[in-house]
Amino acid sequence: MKVVLAFDKFKGSATAQQLNEAAQESLRGLGDITTVCVPVADGGDGTTRVLAANRQGQWITAPTTAPLLQLEPVLASYFLCDDGTALIEVAAASGLALVPDGQRDVMRATTLGTGLLMRDAMERGSRDIVLGLGGSATCDAAMGIMCALGAEFLDADGHHLYPSGESLEKIAHIETLGIPQAVRDCRFTLLTDVDNPLCGERGTASIFAPQKGASPEQVEQLERGMTHVADIIGEEIAHRPGCGAAGGIPALMMHLLDCHLLPGAPYVLAQNGLDEALEGADLVITGEGRLDAQTLMGKGPGCVITMARDRGIPVAAICGMIDPGFDLLATGLVNAIAVSDGLPHEVAMDSDGTLMRVARAVRELAEKHL
User: Is the pTM of this model over 0.85?
Assistant: First the structure.
């Protein structure tokens, strides 16, 4: 029996690689089982490590600025492939996790540090950058990134603007003469795990800014700023699904550079060979921290479920928790197991315990299908 293991991370508890390895180990010696591991990510936190696992290259650690410039500089890592592709995450230098809870300030948070990481990769010869957009502390529409790459943002009086969300509505001119040819020659692939546009009820300010600490008044100011940016870049970009990811990073990058915005999960699964892995499979087991209505809306495990179901392969899911409104039958899953349901939070989040419970659940599922 061939079993494909395709886990995404259990956020804050276990990585995709750890879960897949624990699941694979649990099936050793169980009947005549062949396993194939396909780690899953969707453009959010952990995407770089999942992509790097199947690539030749090296991890680069470089000093860069934190999301708030008053914080200590950070050492951020990215993966430089032997073919020159750089795999970078916004969360590494501009992530919400880098800002202490009491110091969150979405109006002043900047993606400058991410831009400096990208510049470092280009200085090392990269001309192909893959950027995972999840986990940002920012809402600056990539002002910080573009400043790091040579652009200048001026107000109506010709003064330079600080690259953050509070400056968006003041942009009167974007000076691009300082963008080096190396940056203009670079290809950027932006991976998003959401389909929100830049503005409006589902836009980045309305939906994501409150999660980053914005007050209702700040949300209104950020929405004005994003609407102003939309006027600059045009509706075709601003209305594109995913343009609102990571505080609107795709907006100015797509306007000024050679950028391609893609749903993260299909990209990662294609890179990691899920299609080939499904050939001849008898069972697929996927999972993430929580199964809910969002699972089938572009998330990694949702894509795994769809691909397996379309091929007539039984697919089951193992997760930490299952949302009460999750419709198991509608997904086509043959089974879904919540391994942390009812456990105290500190127990549910313990990494070793999570891996042990997942391994046990994987073995139980496989035994039923032998």
Answer: yes
